[in-house]
Specification:
Layout: E1 6-12, H1 17-32, E2 37-43, H2 47-50, E3 56-59, E4 71-73, H3 76-79, H4 83-101
Length: about 100
């Protein structure tokens, strides 16, 4: 039985540069942790509408809105500052979602 992938939105200001780098890093982190994911890219402006179909939203820039999904700031994956902490937060959040699904 294969697990349903966790849907992740990685958003940045333009939806191109930093979200692409962060999205690849998220895919690698989750693959190494054996967590199935589908990673989507977007802009901070589309978070409100896109988050409805996502399990987790990750941003490389500031997002001032409110959403009812876990929000993880992942700029550390690009800058290297606090990278280990961000990686742990991603894995822990994904595992929590997987655990809640199986209850």
């Amino acid at each position: 039985m294969s697990e349903k992938p966790i849907e992740i939105l990685v958003a940045c200001g333009s939806g191109i540069a930093s979200s692409s780098v962060a999205a690849e890093a998220v895919k690698k982190i989750c693959k190494e942790a054996n967590i199935p994911v589908n990673v989507h890219k977007g802009t901070v402006q589309t978070i409100q509408s896109s988050s409805k179909n996502m399990d987790i939203v990750m941003t490389t820039s500031n997002f001032r809105g409110t959403i009812d999904k876990p929000l993880i700031k992942v700029f550390g994956l690009i800058s290297g500052i606090g990278k280990d902490k961000v990686e742990k937060q991603i894995i822990d959040t994904c595992k929590e979602i997987m655990a809640n699904r199986s209850e």
